[in-house]
Write a structure and sequence with these properties.
heterodimer, A: mainly alpha, MetI-like fold, 2 domains, B: about 425 residues, alpha/beta, D-Maltodextrin-Binding Protein, domain 2, 18 helices, signal (chain B), SBP (chain B), Bact_solute-bd_prot1 (chain B)
């Protein structure tokens, strides 16, 4: 048993290391000035994975230009989306889980079906509508389409279904209205689901590329993935800065997941089974 | 029933996020402040100096940039203009795309600026390359050329006499291949192209070998990579990889860095290589781009052109912006302040060429005269045909396959058939 446990731990550590290795290479390379990381790239040398002789110059240059503003825009857009998106998802999920109204099942199926339609498939006609509504190149234009997230509604609804009916009945007897019950009873019990849904909303905006490209690419409203892509143009490419930007964009969701991994896993694994 | 009340804060927050309503074309005043939207594929800093300059020169003008990543520029502009987006006033376009854009009615006629543009250009064809059916539809602020760069230390150690910067004594491609073969073993990559497999880079090989643009017919509407000239060029290209003189697995974003890092003997590349090599303190030299023996010299050229949207309601001011940025020495100089790309306005060009030649010290001696000769006499423009993007895309697949070992004759025939089918669909 002991040997098999050691082997399991070793295998898990090896798998984790291999998964982490490309990101580590990105980090190590981003500490080398300009394009000098290619010196150890062709042929690939073990030195490519050592962050030696490097500096944070790429990060300094990167965070002194358009990318810094784009990064702040990404935080703003993703943050507002999480707050407003959760408000929408919580209310929709609560209605679908607790309220009895005719056609509730159909509405739920409709929400799920619509969430299955890839956003990219509707992005171009939608961008035309947004342009007509004068929402191009605005924060509202960047945020609005991400607010109604079908998967977040699904996760929250499944979680709410697991809240014991007795608790809800007791709250009603005590005079809490439906909104009070949601606010004081259901939501405090649903932190893992809220964190899970919030992370989904955050990631949907953090990694968005097509929509920000269609709706807002002025320096003032540009999001970080677009600013990162703009670091390579027809005649020049500073790979050191691109690697630094890639690392920053990858590290942010990783750090978030690191902090909230338990709740995130719980939100996905216990949906519909709590009670 | 409580939902509307609950969503009120969201509506208020979003309303606060929304930018102020833009002025509609119909409301645009004839005089007074005008805001132009200018879409390009560069970081905002690249165009800021020329925008600042022109805003000072043209009181009332404000230019707002949209910085779209290069791979998505065409699709994004097409999407916005197809939807009748009148908010896009000026955008950058590769001259070869101009006919496709013109066919879709995207481009305003700039012919009124043609006499001034011709008078100010380093070479008239820099202007006429943006003409379709006698109408000027774009103006190029920048241009490019191609040279043969070499690693001086590597050549000295191998006992190879460096190629000459004198265009009359340019090497043949065979000479370059022979010299590269002698570097095998002493340098990791004997010969690199700045942009492997790109039509921009390889068009001069086909032209120099007598194969033309890869198109034939009065209207240049029939693909022709199977002709003897292109077969000669493709066979040469294929041989570089078969013989291990050029690498198969290197992507184009790394070629310049590899040369500047001392890992290559030669690179065929544009003016931007000078600053990269100077930065890494590489001992390098520059020579004229090679030619096929018995063929005519040919070098890649062109860069972005600026165009005015036919759907813009602010065309008058947009044309004045183009005039300022492209046809005045100060404006054109400001446009290259960050990008350091060759300008097209003749006075701006003179100043740039002097500084460009000085930037590399002894390594770039004679480069100014060489560049001017290439721009005036050997530059080949990409053909602005209907369906250019399809043509270029298929040509580049052909080059990539040949690089990876496909038989040039069979693969070129297949490419011709594919392009012909695509052209037929486009009418």
């Amino acid at each position: 048993m002991k040997v098999s446990r050691v082997a399991s731990v070793f295998a898990a550590a090896l798998a984790a290391g291999l998964i982490f290795l490309p990101l580590w290479w990105v980090f190590a390379s981003s500490l080398r000035p300009g394009n000098s990381f290619v010196e150890n790239l062709t042929p690939l040398s073990w030195r490519a994975f050592l962050p030696v002789g490097g500096s944070f110059a790429n990060y300094e240059v990167l965070l002194d230009g358009d990318f810094a503003r784009a990064l702040l825009n990404s935080f703003l857009v993703a943050g507002v989306t999480v707050v407003l998106g959760l408000a929408v998802a919580v209310l929709a999920a609560y209605a679908l889980a607790v309220l009895n109204f005719p056609g509730r099942g159909y509405v739920f199926v409709f929400v799920i079906l619509v969430s299955m339609v890839p956003f990219d498939a509707i992005a171009i006609p939608l961008s035309g509508l947004f342009s007509t509504w004068r929402l191009s190149d605005s924060y509202a234009g960047l945020i609005l389409p991400a607010l109604a997230n079908g998967f977040a509604i699904f996760v929250l609804r499944q979680f709410f279904l697991g809240v014991p009916q007795e608790l809800l009945d007791a709250a009603e007897v005590d005079g809490l209205g439906r909104f009070g019950t949601l606010l004081r009873i259901v939501l405090p019990l649903s932190k893992p689901a809220l964190i899970g849904a919030g992370l989904m909303l955050f990631l949907s905006q953090w990694q968005a590329y097509l929509w920000p490209l269609l709706i807002g690419t002025s320096p003032g409203k540009q999001l970080a993935p677009i600013a990162l892509a703009n670091l390579s143009n027809l005649y020049s490419v500073d790979l050191g800065q691109i690697l630094a930007g890639s690392f920053v964009l990858s590290a942010v969701p990783m750090v978030l997941l690191l902090f909230f991994q338990r709740q995130y896993t719980e939100s996905l694994s216990t949906s519909g089974m709590r009670g | 029933m409580k939902l509307p009340w609950l969503t009120l804060p969201a509506v208020l927050v979003l309303a606060g996020c929304q930018s102020a309503p833009a002025t509609t074309p119909a409301q645009q005043p004839a005089a007074g402040p005008v805001t132009l939207t200018f879409a390009n594929a560069d970081p905002a800093a690249t165009w800021k100096p020329v925008i600042d300059h022109c805003q000072k020169q043209l009181p009332g003008l404000t230019v707002k940039q949209l910085n779209i990543p290069y791979p998505q520029l065409t699709s994004t502009i097409t999407q916005r203009l197809t939807q009748g987006n009148a908010e896009l006033d000026v955008f950058t376009v590769v001259p070869a795309w101009i006919r496709d854009y013109a066919n879709r009615g995207f481009l305003a006629d700039l012919s009124e600026l043609k006499p001034q543009a011709i008078a100010n250009a380093v070479s008239p064809d820099m202007v006429t390359a943006n003409e379709i059916d006698g109408k000027l539809l774009g103006i190029s602020p920048w241009t490019t050329s191609q040279f043969l760069y070499y690693n001086a230390d590597v050549l000295r150690k191998a006992g190879i006499e460096p190629p000459s910067a004198d265009p009359a004594r340019r090497w043949t491609w065979q000479q370059l291949r022979d010299a590269s073969a002698r570097l095998k073993g002493s340098v990791q990559y004997p010969l690199l192209f700045d942009q492997f497999d790109s039509y921009y880079q390889l068009q001069p090989l086909g032209v120099s070998a007598g194969g033309g643009n890869g198109l034939t017919g009065d209207k240049q509407d029939k693909p022709d990579f199977a002709n003897p000239g292109w077969q000669k060029a493709l066979t040469f290209y294929s041989g570089l990889f078969t013989d291990g003189l050029s690498p198969r697995g290197i992507t184009n974003d790394k070629t310049n860095a590899l040369f500047a890092g001392g890992k290559a003997g030669f690179i065929v590349s544009g003016p931007w290589t000078v600053s990269n090599a100077v930065k890494t303190k590489l001992a390098f030299g520059v020579a004229a781009a090679p030619v096929f023996e018995g063929g005519k010299p040919a070098t890649s050229t062109d860069s972005w052109a600026m165009a005015v949207s036919a759907k813009s309601a602010k065309q008058a001011m947009a044309k004045r912006f183009l005039e300022c940025a492209n046809l005045t020495a100060a404006g054109n100089t400001a446009s290259i302040k960050i990008a350091q790309i060759t300008p097209t306005q003749k006075d701006a060009y003179k100043a740039f060429a002097t500084q460009f030649e000085a930037s590399g010290g002894a390594a770039t001696k004679g480069l100014s005269a060489l560049m001017e000769t290439e721009l005036r006499t050997t530059a080949v423009h990409r053909p602005p045909v209907t369906g250019y993007t399809v043509f270029e895309s298929e040509a580049e697949k052909l080059f990539a396959d040949v690089r990876n070992g496909s038989n040039p004759a069979g693969r070129a025939k297949k490419a011709d058939e594919t392009i012909a089918r695509q052209f037929a669909r486009l009418g």
